Amino acid sequence: MTYDYVMVVNKLNLAGLLIFIGVAEFLLLMLIAEALYPGYSVSRNYISDLGVGPVALIFNSSIIIMGLLLIIAAVLVWRLSRVFAVTIALTGIGAMGVGIFPETMHPFHLIFALIAFLFASISSYPTIKISRSPGKVLWPILGTIGFIALLLFIKHIYLGLGPGGMERMIVYPNLVWALAFSTELMNH
Fold it and tell me: pLDDT by residue (tens digit) across 36-71?
């Protein structure tokens, strides 16, 4: 085994760990913020409503941390897949922007939210080429669900879920594939 091979494998393991930590901490802290926010409705309220008000520190810090960890992971996976590295870095930049510029800061918040939503979905596509898991065909399917939900969300078609519910149909499938794929990278 060569030194270069060991370094690449260790970088991929670390990248997987960082993606997992970032996504998991964001998901859990988002759920905590929803529970602590008085009168918050997952159907009626946008996810970004958590970035202003009584739970802003919890939400904004968690999404900034996720974004930062995704950017670091992107650097670590560069030799594995440049396309994946770029798309996951853009997802991280978008996520950080959402936390730095809460929804009250137009148009910056909307721009960064769109970057995060779009590139989180797109990031699932290159995983089909680099994944060794039998579930690799599921990652782009989950990304596609997020992408279709984004298009519906933009057109204000909420399918009875409300704006908050449809926004979660963008986010949750992407969080699921990222968690699954990151565990594969940790075992690469």
Answer: 999 999 999 999 999 999 999 999 999 999 999 999
Cα–Cα distance for residue pair 78/123, rounded to 1 Å: 13
For residue 114, the tally of other CB atoms under 10 A from its CB is: 16
What residue segments make up the domains of the chain, in order of their start? 3-186
* Number of Cβ within a 10 Å radius of residue 105: 14
pLDDT mean over 121-150: 94
Neighbour count for residue 130 (Cβ, 10 Å)? 18
The radius of gyration of the chain from alpha carbons, rounded to an integer in Å, stands at 16
**131 with 109: CB under 8 angstroms?**
no
